[in-house]
Amino acid sequence: MSQKVYCIAMFRAKPGKEDALFKILQSLEPNSQREDGCIQYLVTRQIENPFATGESYPFVFNEIWANKAAFEAHCQRKEIVAFFEEQCVAEDGLVEAHNVCVYSDQPANFDAPKL
To answer: What b/e sequence results for 13-52 when a residue is b if at least 16 CB atoms lie within 10 Å of its CB, and e otherwise?
Structure first.
């Protein structure tokens, strides 16, 4: 099994702010993709499809990091901290709601030796 960390970061814009928020999210890609340990960092926009009718937030980052340390280093970068403070926490930010979750591909109680 790998040490990879998979992150799904979802965002819903305040009404009328969708295009502006998507542009800001896209602007986070280039520097994040250059980080050590970044395997994938891609913002996506939900589209309608009759075969996928589930509920989600309109914008989702699909992230893969080499390990937990790489993910945590990313989360502490000034650009990422500023985004959350300015767009998610600040009253005048563009984000109405957000949800960030991380996942592992290892089964529970997996006992492989550490390398």
So the answer is: beeebbeebbebbeebeeebeebebbeebebeeeeeeeee
